[in-house]
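Human: If only I could read C-alpha cells as easily as an amino acid sequence. Take your time, and here it is.
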Amino acid sequence: VQWQGWNEASPPHIFVAGGAADSKDIILKVLRALELLDFQVGIDVMVSKMYKDRDKLNYPNLKSKHFIVIHEELQAPWEVLADTTLAVLSFGMTAFETMAAGIPTLCLSISDDHASAADALSSGLVHLGPVEDVAAGLPSEQRIAHAVRNILRSDALARLSANARQAVDGKGVERVAVKIVEAIQRKNAAGG
C-alpha cells in the first residue's frame, strides 16, 4: 500500500486506532474531536477483541455527522489504509505501518518510550503529545480537530507522506547490521 494523495472532490478518509485495548480512551477522544470539524469525513476505526468500550461505538451511543465504519480484528489493515487520507492514532506498531505506507499520521503517545520514538520520527508524523495529557484533557479535542483541519487544508499531507516513507523504509535492520560490522572492524583494527 502506498499513499495516493487526496482527491479534494471527495471527503477525506480518517483512520483511527488506539492500540489493542485503548486503555486511555484515545479512540473516543479522537471521534469526539472529529465531530468538531466543519466538513464531512469518512472514518475507519480499528478495534481489537480487547477493546473495552465496544458498546460505545454502536448506534445509538455513537451519534455522528460522519460516516463511520468500525473494523474489529482487522486482519488486513492495508485494505483500509489504501483509501486513507490521514491516520489519527496511538503511537505504536500501527504508526510504523501507516508511515511505511506513506499515510500522513497524527499520533498521541501512550508511554515515555513511545513519546521519544514519536518525537524522533517527527519529520514523518505529527506527535500531539503523551496520553497522560489526553487523560487530563490535553491535547484537547479542539486541538486534535485543529491539527486535523490544518493538516488537511495545507500542503503538509504530501510532505508528511514523503517523509514517512523515507523514515520507515524497511532498511533499518540493514543499517543496524552495517553499524555492528563497522564497530567489530574498528575493535579488531584497534587490536581488541
User: Anything to note?
Assistant: The mean pLDDT is 84. The helical segments are 26-34, 77-81, 93-100, 112-120, 131-135, 141-152, 156-167, 172-189. The first strand starts at residue 13 and ends at 17.
